[in-house]
């Protein structure tokens, strides 16, 4: 599936529509831009530059107030990522944002978390032709993803959920639950406490 008169859209437009596409030079250039900005953010943060955040703001599509992202950070494009206010992201987040990745407010993202939107055909023929697609990921507000959690394409995690370290989330997780394992499964509901 390359650009053709039958479908005048670019591969980028097909990618953004969640349809099969083939990565091209335009995508490679955008990815290189993201790598450069992520590297600049990392370097400036490590060197103690108080203006380091400007590189993160240029990289991430929508960055809420008081967000903390500890580098290194790995993204495909960055501008398809949204991080809500007061969220904390620990080191080595991999956010492959071929489709949109939405992280809510007040989240805790552990080290080495992977948010993976890309998909590839199961059929070996189109896979060999380098066709790929993607499905969005949505992380609700006040979610805690433990270290090493992997969130697969198309998954939504509800508000206040806790995902145990090392879990592989292959299906949607409802709000107010704890889920663990591979594949992640709900093991209990979270009873909220109200402090006066």
Strand content: 25-35%
CATH class: Mainly Beta
Summed up, the domain count is 1
Let me know the number of strands: 20
Terminal residue distance:
59 Å
Q: What is the spatial order of strands in the main beta sheet? A: 3-6-9-14-17-19-20
Order of H and E elements = HEHHEEEEEEEEEEHEEEEEEEEE
| CATH H-level superfamily title | Hexapeptide repeat proteins
How many alpha or pi helices? 4
Average pLDDT rating: 94
Class from helix and strand fractions: alpha/beta
**pLDDT under 50 segments (min length 5)?**
none
CATH architecture: 3 Solenoid
Lay out the secondary structure.
Layout (H helix, E strand, L loop, with lengths): L10 H6 L4 E2 L2 H22 L6 H7 L2 E2 L4 E2 L3 E3 L5 E3 L4 E2 L3 E4 L4 E3 L4 E2 L4 E3 L1 E2 L4 H5 L2 E4 L2 E3 L4 E2 L4 E2 L4 E2 L4 E2 L4 E2 L7 E4 L4 E5 L7
Parallel strand pairs: 2-5, 3-6, 4-7, 5-8, 6-9, 7-10, 8-13, 9-14, 10-15, 13-16, 14-17, 15-18, 17-19
Antiparallel strand pairs: 1-12, 11-12, 19-20
Descriptive account of the structure:
- The chain has 196 residues and is of the alpha/beta class.
- It has a single domain (11-189), classed as UDP N-Acetylglucosamine Acyltransferase, domain 1 (3 Solenoid).
- 20% of the residues lie in helices and 28% in strands.
- The protein is built from four helices and 20 strands.
- The strands form four sheets. The chain has a seven-stranded mixed β-sheet with strand order 3-6-9-14-17-19-20, with no helix packed on it.
- The protein is globular.
- The termini are far apart.
- 31% of the residues are buried.
């Amino acid at each position: 599936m390359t650009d053709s008169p039958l479908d005048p859209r670019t591969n980028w437009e097909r990618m953004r529509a969640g349809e099969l596409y083939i990565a091209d030079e335009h995508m490679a250039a955008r990815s290189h831009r993201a790598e450069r900005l992520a590297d600049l953010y990392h370097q400036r943060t490590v060197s103690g530059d108080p203006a380091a955040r400007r590189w993160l703001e240029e990289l991430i599509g929508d960055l809420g107030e008081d967000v903390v992202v500890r580098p290194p950070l790995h993204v495909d494009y960055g501008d398809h990522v949204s991080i809500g206010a007061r969220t904390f992201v620990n080191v080595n987040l991999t956010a492959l944002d071929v489709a949109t990745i939405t992280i809510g407010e007040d989240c805790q993202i552990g080290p080495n978390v992977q948010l993976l939107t890309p998909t590839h055909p199961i059929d070996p023929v189109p896979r060999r032709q380098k066709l790929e697609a993607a499905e969005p990921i949505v992380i609700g507000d006040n979610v805690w993803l433990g270290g090493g959690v992997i969130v697969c394409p198309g998954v939504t995690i509800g508000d206040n959920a806790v995902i145990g370290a090392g879990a592989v989330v292959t299906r949607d997780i409802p709000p107010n639950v704890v889920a663990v394992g591979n594949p992640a499964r709900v093991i209990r509901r979270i009873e909220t406490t109200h402090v006066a």
